[in-house]
Structures are given as C-alpha cells and as structure tokens.
Specification:
Blueprint: E1 3-7, H1 10-18, E2 22-23, E3 28-29, E4 33-38, H2 48-53, H3 57-72, H4 83-92, E5 99-103, H5 106-113, E6 127-133, H6 134-138, H7 143-152, H8 159-165, H9 169-176, E7 182-184, H10 191-195, E8 198-202, H11 210-217, E9 222-226, H12 231-240, H13 245-248, H14 252-262
Parallel strand pairs: 1-9
Antiparallel strand pairs: 2-3, 4-6, 5-8, 6-9, 7-8
Helix pairs in contact: 5-12, 7-8
C-alpha cells in the first residue's frame, strides 16, 4: 500500500529528511530507501519511454536502442554489446528508456520537487517526493536474481550483476512479468551521476501501471506531498544545505541555472 503524507511545515519535513532505520547487527543507522522528486504532485510515475512511445513502447524500444548505440558508440565505446549500459548512458543523456530515475538522497529528491523551469509557477501546485524500499522490492525477485545478490553479498544490482542474471530485455520481461521490478546502481560515468547519488528502477514492459504495482505489492512505499505554499521555503532550505543546480549538474550549465534562480525576482 502507498502511504500519503502531506507536508505543510518545515517541522514535518524532518520525517522525510531524517528517517533512518537502526540495524542492530551493524549498530548503525542504515536503510535502503530511494527517493524521486516531481515538481508537480499530479504527475504519475512513468518512464520516458512510456511517455514518448506510449502504446508502441514494446515495438520501438529495441530499434531505438540499436540506433542510439550505432551513433553513440564513438563517444562511449563501452556500451557496445551491453544493453544495460546502452540504456543507462542513454537515460543519462535524455534518451527515452524504460528506466526510472531515483536518488539515495532525500535532499536530492527534494531539489527536483522544489524546482520549476518557470519559477513563476512555484506556488501554482503542490509537488511530491516518492520513497520506495529496495529491500522490499528485491525480496520479491525470482530465485536466480536472489542467488546473484547472495553471491555478491549485496542488495542492489550493478550492471555486471544484472547482465549475469539476464543478458537481454526479452528475458528480463519474461522473468519479471508485471509483478516484479529491479533497482540498479549505475556506474560512475561522470560527476553528475555521482552528485545525484543516482539509482534506476528497471521497469518491465508488462508493468503498465507502476503506482498500482507499488500499491498492491509494497508496504513501505510513501508519497510525500509538499504544499505549494511551502515550496519556496524548501528551496531556500536546500540552498543553505548546498543542494543547488551547481552541485546537481556540475559544470557551466548547472552554474548558470543556479545563478539565474538565485537572482530571480519574485513578484
């Protein structure tokens, strides 16, 4: 079931920012929640492939990836022959894929929830941060995926682990059906992936409604709705924590976005 928590004060934001589970076997506070921020609470969880190709996603995914690899291999030779690396590199550069972006950092998710391309609309609508638990998702995975996690002593898949379990999209879709979904940690391709503490969920083609899957099959999924009246205060709080476009997008693009927003004049 998806829990919905409405945030209308900065004190209520603490639950999202500071939640960590105590693990007695480690004597440390650790969890494996990952977060996704959306600027508009009315947006549904969907992949860029679903939004771009709609009902033809299954037919168009492989031709699109083939052409992406054909043209991109000069810049990224390591993607040749590895569909998972092709997909991650493509997603990173705006190519439509079945991957859904998440971050290990709730502050990073809040950044995307407190950002608008048109800053005049910051108070036009609520925003949202989604939280899912990777342990909960991966405890449901088919046996061969569980065995690979045990083999490497980890809960999160790497590209190489996923390729060992499943070398093709067709096999992944057959294994997962509509009732399972896997989370992968991408390789550190550049500073942006590192800065954003990125993770991806690999959405199987049979899963038509991600939110319905989470509602039926998970107990720890939460949806934090941030009141529109609070968004500017959250934005200023994040700036004070050094969570800005300059950090999220290292380089001149991020610097320019950050300075433009910093000097933005509110009516």
């Amino acid at each position: 079931m998806i829990s919905q928590i409405r945030i209308e004060t900065m004190d209520q934001l603490t639950e999202l920012v500071a939640e960590q589970q105590y693990r007695p076997e480690l004597k440390r506070y650790r969890d494996l929640h990952i977060y996704r921020g959306e600027s508009n609470a009315s947006y549904t969880l969907s992949t860029s492939l679903q939004r771009n190709c709609k009902g033809l996603s299954r037919q168009l995914e492989l031709p699109m990836l083939h052409n992406f690899t054909k043209y991109a291999v000069l810049e990224e030779p390591m993607i040749d022959g590895n569909v998972w690396k092709q997909m991650i590199v493509g997603q990173h550069h705006g190519f439509p894929t079945r991957l859904l972006d998440w971050s290990f950092s709730p502050l990073m998710a809040l950044h995307f929830a407190a950002t608008e391309s048109d800053l005049d609309r910051m108070e036009a609508h609520d925003s949202v941060v989604w939280r899912i638990d990777v342990h909960e998702l991966h405890d449901r995975l088919p046996a061969k995926y569980q065995q690979i996690m045990d083999k490497y002593g980890t809960t999160v898949f790497s590209v190489d682990m996923l390729r060992e379990a499943c070398a093709s999209l067709e096999q992944y879709d057959a294994d997962m059906g509509e009732n399972h979904m896997l989370v992968i940690e991408p390789p550190s391709l550049d500073r942006r992936i590192i800065s954003q503490y990125s993770f991806f969920s690999v959405v199987p083609m049979g899963m038509k409604n991600i939110e319905q899957f989470l509602d039926v099959n998970t107990d720890k999924t939460a949806r934090f709705v941030i009141a529109k009246e609070l968004r500017w205060q959250v934005r200023d709080f994040l700036d004070h924590q050094n969570i800005t476009e300059r950090m999220v997008y290292p380089g001149l693009d991020g610097l320019s976005q950050w300075l433009g927003r910093h000097y933005y004049v509110r009516e």
